[in-house]
Every structure is written in structure tokens, then in C-alpha cells.
Specification:
By secondary structure, the protein is of the alpha/beta class. It has eight helices and 13 strands. Strands 1, 2, 3, 4, 5, 6, 7, 8, 9, 10, 11, 12 and 13 form a 13-stranded mixed sheet that branches. A hairpin with a 2-residue loop joins β2 (39-48) and β3. The N and C termini lie far apart (43 Å).
Length: 304
């Protein structure tokens, strides 16, 4: 009885000490359901720590190295976010059991380039000259191959609200500024080329929240990011939107891809299966279906 009391005490303390980021999403299973050719598809995924797993009983499994990128996907998002559902549904439709491992992005990149994961996602466009951050003397595209585009997301420069910079600089002006970027991120091909050339003073952050803090606190002149992501992390971290300015025009509207590890066996087969699935999913309005159902569920639960 005494040992049982100790175990219960330890368990209660462990629950009490869970970090605030221990999320709504992690406390429950998640159902991914949609229709294809009037047939209802329904799969249940569950959280194991920071990994989200959907076992549909297929013969093939696929490991996806990903990140918390709210509001698109993340462990703290209601239902994990629409992009988690969409990526899972695409892989399920392609005949794979997906396992999403949520990691700091630089670690996710390393894991995939070294072949410890099948897919890095979501990934922006990778310019041909982009060097690998993992394997010296090689390019990122030596180790990764991009699928067809899944979706698109805007990329902007962001400055502090009190900055003299009021509009997006031209590429030729970029060396005049210090720039905050997230370690391991692709940003935009034309910007990354300038960064890789060493012409710009760069500070690297571990995630979008830290990157936003760099510019708000005056440690860099500009950062690069998706405004929706930055607004979301600002709200979550107590940063006033009035403290920063999203500059216009946008740098680009970036495609989002699955980036497949060329080190993994059968990666070409996986690529073929994914690329055959994406246009079919688009024709079936799969993304819209999933987004609407998540919105309805989260509104009903009051978790938006």
C-alpha cells in the first residue's frame, strides 16, 4: 500500500508539473475523416508524446519530421491544425500509415537529410544552390527531393513598429540590413541566395517566436516569416501586434512541399505515390473538407 501511495503521488506530481504547452491536441485521439468519390474515409490517430501516429493497417509506414507551425499545425493547435490533417490524409490516400514527429526545425532537417525520417514537411521551395546545413560540401537537394506542391503560404519581411523601414526592401538593398531567420528554414529562393553568399548579417533563431522577439527587441532590422504564423505566436507569447509591422509587398507566396529523403530506400516509389495522390485530393476538395470539419469541431468545443 505504501508503494502504491508513492506511485500515485509521483503520478499526481508529474501531471501537476506538465508544462503549459502540454496541449489540447496531446490529450486526445484525433479523427481524420473526409469523402472520396462519395465514400467516407475515417481514421483515428493518437499522440505518443510529441509524435502523432495514424495506424490504418496498411503494410507501409512513413515517418514525417515536422514542427509546431501554428496555426497550420502543431501540438497546441485544436485537432493538431488543418495542415496536419491534410498531410496525414494525403499519405493515407497514398496507402501509408503516417507518423509525424514534432521537432525543432533544424533537428527535423538533420533527421531527414541523414535518412532517419522519410519526409520533411512542410518545406518551402529549395533553391538549387542551397547548401546542406547537415553534410558539409553538399547541397540540400543532394539529400532531399520535393513533391508536387500541397498548398501555398505567404512570406513577408517584418520590421519593428518604430523602425524607419516601412516597406519591403529590394533584394539589392538586403545587405544594408541585419536579418533574423529561423535555423534550418528555407525562406525564399532569391533571399536565400543572398544569405548564402554571406552578404547579409544574419542572426538565427530556433523558432518563429524567438525570431519575432529578435526584431521586436531591436536585435535585427528585419525578420522573414508568414504573417499568420507570426500573429499566432505573438498572441501565444504575449507580444503586442502593435510592436511589429508586416511589410508590403510580400516576398513571395511559397509553395509547401513534402521533401523526401533520398537516403531512404524506395523513396522514388513514395514520391510517385504522393504525386499521384495530390491532384486526386485536389479534385476531391480534400483540403476544404478537412478545414471545414476542423473549424466546426473546434468552434463547438470552444478551442479556437
Amino acid at each position: 500500500m505504501f508503494m502504491l501511495y508513492i506511485r500515485m503521488t509521483v503520478f499526481i506530481l508529474a501531471v501537476a508539473l506538465l508544462p503549459a504547452s502540454y496541449s489540447y491536441a496531446q490529450r486526445q485521439s484525433i479523427t481524420i475523416d473526409y469523402q472520396v468519390n462519395d465514400a467516407t474515409m475515417s481514421y483515428t490517430g493518437f499522440w505518443r508524446g510529441s509524435t502523432f501516429i495514424v495506424d490504418a493497417g496498411f503494410e507501409r509506414n512513413v515517418i514525417v519530421a515536422t514542427l509546431d507551425w501554428p496555426p497550420y499545425l502543431g501540438r497546441n493547435q485544436c485537432q493538431g491544425g488543418w495542415l496536419l490533417h491534410y498531410m496525414a490524409a494525403l499519405l493515407l490516400q497514398a496507402g501509408y500509415n503516417p507518423e509525424f514527429r514534432f521537432l525543432p526545425w533544424a533537428r527535423a532537417v538533420r533527421m531527414t537529410e541523414l535518412g532517419h525520417a522519410d519526409i520533411l514537411a512542410p518545406e518551402y521551395e529549395i533553391e538549387s544552390s542551397a547548401p546542406s546545413d547537415v553534410i558539409p560540401g553538399s547541397s540540400r537537394l543532394n539529400h532531399l527531393a520535393l513533391s508536387s506542391a500541397l498548398a501555398h503560404a505567404p512570406v513577408h519581411y517584418v520590421a519593428a513598429a518604430d523602425s524607419a523601414i516601412t516597406q519591403a526592401p529590394q533584394i539589392s538593398e538586403l545587405p544594408n540590413y541585419s536579418l533574423g531567420i529561423v535555423r534550418g528554414y528555407q525562406n525564399a529562393p532569391q533571399v536565400d541566395q543572398v544569405i548564402d553568399s554571406g552578404q547579409v548579417i544574419v542572426q538565427q533563431a530556433i523558432d518563429d517566436a524567438q525570431n519575432l522577439n529578435l526584431v521586436v527587441n531591436g536585435r535585427v532590422n528585419l525578420i522573414i516569416g508568414d504573417p499568420l504564423v507570426l500573429h499566432t505566436v505573438a498572441s501565444a507569447n504575449g507580444i503586442d501586434r502593435a510592436a511589429y509591422r508586416v511589410l508590403q509587398p510580400s516576398i513571395t507566396n511559397q509553395p509547401l512541399y513534402f521533401a523526401l529523403s533520398k537516403t531512404r530506400p524506395q523513396w522514388q516509389v513514395l514520391m510517385q505515390d504522393i504525386n499521384q495522390t495530390i491532384p486526386v485530393a485536389s479534385a476531391q476538395q480534400l483540403r476544404q473538407q478537412l478545414t471545414e470539419r476542423i473549424d466546426e469541431h473546434c468552434a463547438a468545443q470552444g478551442t479556437y
